[in-house]
Structures are given as C-alpha cells and as structure tokens.
Design brief:
Layout (H helix, E strand, L loop, with lengths): L9 H5 L5 H32 L2 H29 L1 H24 L5 H32 L4 H30 L1 H22 L6 H5 L7 H14 L1 H33 L2 H25 L5 H11 L2 H8 L3 H15 L2 H12 L5 H11 L4 H12 L4 H20 L18
C-alpha cells in the first residue's frame, strides 16, 4: 500500500522542518472552528426564539446536515482534482458570504424562513469540502514539519475541542448581550480570516501520486467509486463507519435539537447551554492531550470502544434532570473519555489510506458517517412536540449503548492496535 510516509523525498529529509505552514493551518482551523461552534449554538437558539417551534429547529438542522453528506461524497473528489489549498480558500470565501447574508437579511427585514433554509444549506455545502481540504493538507504539511501522524491528528482534534471550549460559552454570553444574529457576523469574519491566512502562509501542495498518474486520469465518478471501494474492502474502516453513522445520528438529534430545547425550557439561558458544551469540550481537550502524550503506550482499541460507550452518560444524565453542576461534571467526564476517539480515527485513516486516494476517501468517510443524521434531527424535532423529553433522552442513551457495544465483539477493531503501516511521518 502506498501511504503518506512515501511522499517525503531525500531532498526534503535533508531540509530543516517547515513548521510555519502547519502552524498556520492549525491557527486557521482554530479561528474558523470557534466561529462555527458559536453558530451551532446561535442558529437553533435564533430559530427557537423567533418561531418557538422545535419542529422548525429540527428542519433547520436537517438543512444543515443534508448538504454535508452530498458535499462530502462529491467534494472529496473535487478537492483531489482542484488541489487541497485552493479548495480550502474557495470554500472559506463562499462560507463568508452565505453566513454574512443571514444577519444582513434579518436586519433588513427580508429573512424569510425559506431563505434561512437556503443559506444554511449552501453554507454547509461549501464548508464540508473546505474541511476535507484542510484535513487532507495536514498530513502533507506534517511530513514537512517532521511530525508524526498521531501528533498531527491529535493537534487538529485538540483545536476542535478547544474551539468548543471557547466558542460555546462565548456564544452564550454574546447571545445574552447582543442577540443570536450578531454572533453570525463573527462566524462570517472567522471564515474570511481562515481564507486569508491559508492564502498568505500555506504553500501550494501537489499530490505526488497524482503527478505520477497524470497520463492515466480517470473520470470523476470512477475516482469517487475508487474511494468507496477502498473503504468497503477495509474491514476496520467499514466497521468504524457503520457504528459512527448511528452514533452521529443520535448525537446530531440530541445536540442539534434536543439540547437547545432542553436548555431553553429547563435551564433558561443560552449561557447555560454554552457552559455545558464548554465542559464537554474542555474534557475532550484533556483526553486528547493525554492521548497525544502517551499514544504509543495506551491501548488505543480499548480507548476507542469504551470511550464511545461512555458517551451515553450524557443522555442518561440529561434524562434524570439532576442539579446543573451534576450535568457539568457528567459532560466533563464524557469529554475526557471521548477526547482520544477522533485522533485515533484520523491517525488510522492517515496510516491506511493511500495518498492518491486521500481527498476522495476522507470525503466519503465524512459523508458516510453523517448519511442518516438528517433523519435523526427531523425525528427529534417532531418527537419533542409529542413525547416526554426525559423518555426521549433515555431511549437515545439505550440505543447508543447498544450500538457501540458491537465494537467490543468486532475482530476488525483489533486492527487499531495493529496498524498495517508505521504511523510515522519522519
């Protein structure tokens, strides 16, 4: 299997590490992620405030997720063809425009509900290929910076978690002071910052395997099929995708619809919701940092399997409606346990996916794990108006435990501790 280790030439090995591009990429991701997390809280809060409808909140979440699936499947192949850097920049500028139009139209009294759905649809449609492009850029830049793939993936995931830690309570505070629509201006500016930073500091990176195959170009659909076929024949990746597909559906339903409804009706303030998400993000930072420091010594398979199972504690704790501080503790503990999960998955992908398939395959993974999430948010929005919220949360927790328990009995998951290639970039 041709992997990213092979992309470092003899001349590159003799050169000093180029750390500025990877630091710039991390910074761009951090700023953009903070804005995105703020919008994830501000958008459902805005819909609940202006419509009072859980069903409409679910519909907005549906229109956020649906394009991510399509864009992930198609966008990965487009990213491979257009180039990682160019795709990231174009996607960020497009998202700057679509996000900025929401508060602009609202201030002008022209934001109809259908227009909001259109804007969130196109924001997600453009954002997903951008995320795929930056994910595909990372291992190439990590090679030049003499970073291991575990270090690179852990750094990326820590940034995502810190973004939740900072963005969620900041969004809650700003919503309380200025209103939800003003927070969207901040998100638009973070996309613009990310685009500018990548333009100025990250050099163009060409897929070397693609250079070797220029005379053997395949069609767009053949490349997409190649990525799907590769994943289907990899037992470990296939099992991970199938399980995460279900857990993402349950997470999407709770965090996208149920939790904002819960916070508004039982906690009372957007800041309370922001602090819950911050506790979860802070715990995940701790968990990811511990994993990054001791990844070579820790049993990654057990961290992955039992970390996912432990995540169900959030749903059960919400169902019991305990004192607020108990919820904070539960979300913090869950964050610590799930912190290593994404770094493990990303490191496994970097190790197992050939460089020539990287963009398209990451895109397929991103699309596949979210393919049923829209169903979850729609159902959650409808059920919230009909079913007791405590019962809904308890049932969700039971489904979560049942799904993740499958991993404990899977032989394929054992390959997490038996990587087919050395996960080293240097």
């Amino acid at each position: 299997m041709e992997n990213l280790v092979a992309t470092k030439s003899k001349d590159e090995i003799l050169q000093p590490p180029a750390r500025l591009p990877v630091i710039a990429l991390f910074t761009a991701n951090a700023v953009s992620s903070v804005g995105t997390v703020m919008t994830q809280l501000a958008l459902p809060w805005f819909v609940l405030q202006t419509t009072g409808s859980a069903a409409k909140t679910g519909l907005v979440s549906f229109f956020v997720i649906i394009p991510t699936i399509f864009a992930a499947f198609i966008g990965g192949t487009l990213v491979d063809r257009m180039g990682f850097r160019r795709s990231s920049i174009l996607a960020d500028w497009a998202c700057t425009l679509t996000i900025a139009l929401i508060p602009l139209l609202y201030a002008a009294g022209m934001l109809e509900f259908w227009a909001l759905l259109v804007l969130v649809f196109f924001t997600s449609l453009f954002d997903t290929p951008g995320v795929t492009a930056r994910t595909a850029l990372l291992p190439v830049l990590a090679v030049k910076a003499n970073m291991t793939f575990e270090q690179a993936s852990t750094g990326s995931q820590v940034i995502n978690r810190v973004s939740r830690l900072i963005g969620a309570p900041l969004a809650g505070l700003l919503i309380a002071i200025f209103g939800a629509t003003q927070v969207l201006w901040i998100d638009a500016s973070t996309f613009a910052f990310s685009a500018l930073l990548i333009m100025l500091t990250v050099p163009a990176v060409r897929n070397q395997s693609k250079e070797k195959e220029e005379k053997e170009k395949t069609s767009f659909w053949e490349e997409l099929r190649e990525g799907i076929t590769f994943l289907w024949h990899d037992r470990l990746m296939r099992m991970v995708i199938m399980v995460v597909m279900v857990t993402n559906m349950l997470d999407g339903a709770v965090f996208g619809v149920v939790l904002p409804f819960y916070a508004k009706n039982f906690l009372g303030a957007a800041l309370d919701l922001g602090l819950l998400l911050a506790a979860n993000g802070g715990g995940a930072v701790i968990g990811a940092l511990i994993f990054g420091a001791f990844s070579q010594k820790l049993p990654q398979r057990y961290l992955f399997v039992y970390g996912l199972m432990f995540a169900s504690l959030e749903f059960f704790s919400l169902a019991l409606m305990p004192p607020y501080w108990v919820l904070i503790v539960c979300f913090l503990l869950v964050g610590i346990m799930v912190g290593p999960i994404n770094p493990i998955i990303v490191a496994v992908m970097y190790a197992r996916i050939p460089e020539k398939n990287l963009g398209k395959t990451i895109g397929v993974v991103a699309g596949a794990v979210n393919v049923v999430t829209p169903v979850g948010v729609l159902i959650a929005g409808l059920l919230l108006d009909q079913v007791n919220i405590q019962v809904l949360l308890a049932v969700t927790g039971i489904l979560y435990v049942g799904t993740t328990s499958v991993l404990a009995f899977s032989r394929a998951v054992r390959q997490i501790d038996q990587k087919a290639v050395t996960v080293k970039a240097n």
